[in-house]
Every structure is written in structure tokens, then in C-alpha cells.
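User: I'll paste a sequence; please echo it back and then give the predicted structure.

Assistant: Echoing your sequence first, then the prediction.
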Amino acid sequence: MKYLLKLNLCIAFIPLIAIIVSGCSKCNDDIQNSLNGKTSAVFNSSKNYGTMTDQDGNVYKTITIGTQTWMAENLRTTKYNDGTAIPNVTDSIAWAALTTGAFCNYKNTTNDVFIATYGRLYNWYAVNSGKLSPAGWHIPTMDEFNILSAYLGNGSVAGGKMKETGTTHWNYYNQNIGATNESGFTALPSGGRLDIYSMSRYEFKDLETNNYLWSATSYTVSSTICHILNSYDVISYFTTYNRAFGLSVRLIKN
């Protein structure tokens, strides 16, 4: 009789453990989903993504491509890695006059899903501060972008292998030419804060059509090399932009 009582107690206890474990797992999932910002990006379901966390507590997917590990989402931190706040500068005239680090959101949106999906835009002064990346990560150089491009077949085809598929985000006349995202990089057309006709008014443009990413490689005393993808072809290429531009950031692991 005592044996049966002990057995019944054990059987009753097992579901309780399962409930506790399941509850803890759900809590962890809820925390992860909350920190991940509810991005609407479409990742490559055949890839094994890792994660990294920035100084704001945002959690990002990461992807290993060849010998490199990249963020698979655009950076959206509002703090430097020493804990100080990065100024959020919304006015276009004030942005044009900056010689220090700043960020903004595309069209100054406050929509959490939009920000989680496309990330934030940073000027070069924030990128060059040496404090934008969490420990173990850094701003990629042009050479590191070239290594990625070469691994994917070269710049004439790499763009298609880096772009998120479909036209939910990339949308050039309802097209996203050649996009396969076979690399898992999941590049998005986050646009930028760009100087319109050299009028020193930095306006938001090219959402849905262009992905601009800062590199750590300078070109002149006033310009820096950035990496570009677009919705209307499969190439991966570089150009030089004024350091006051607001562009997206993808970090690479040390």
C-alpha cells in the first residue's frame, strides 16, 4: 500500500515538473521574441542562424558565410558600447551640420516593428567612434565585404545571394530581381538619409529599393566607402558617400 502511494505521488509529480519546465521555456521564448523586436524580415529557413546581443539588449540573428560570421539583421542600438546614448537627430538641417555621432530612424518613425526590421541609420561619426559594436564584433572593411562577395561567386552575382527573397520589403515595380538569399545574409532595402542635390538637406529616400551599408574604409578626408545592393539587379558593389549620410550598419564577428 505504501509502495502504491509513493508510485502515485511520483506519477503526479512528473506532470508538475513538465509544466514548470514548459513554463520556463515559454518565458525564455517570450524574452527572446521581445528582445528580437518582432522583425518582419524573411530569413532563409534552411540556414542555422546564431544570435548576438548589442549594448541595448537587442538580440539579432547571425549567419556564418564561408570563414566569416555576419549579423543577419541591421543594427538598431541607441547606445555606444560604453553605455552612453547616441543622439537621435531628427531635423535634416541639424543632421547636415553634425561632426559627431548620431542616429535616426527612417522618416523618424517610432514603429517598433519597422525599426526591428530595417534597423536604424547612423552617420559616419558614430560608425568611426570605435564604440558602436559590442565586444567581439566590428564594422566591416571593404576587404571583408570583398571576401564575402568572392565566396558568393563575385560582385556580379553576390547581391542576389544576399538579398531577402520576395517583394514584401524589396519592391522595384513589384520586382526583386534575382534574389535567392542562399547565403542567409537577408539584406533589406533600408534606404538612407541622403543629401538631395547637394543642398545640405539630408532627406530619407530609397526604402524598398536600396541597401546601403557603411564600411570602415575611408576614401577621402570627407568620404567613406559603402556597400550597395539594389532591387533591380543581382550585383554587389561599392561607392563613396559623404560622412554625413545616414546609412545602415551590419557588423562582422572578430
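The longest helix spans residues 2-35. Confidence is low (pLDDT under 50) at residues 1-35.
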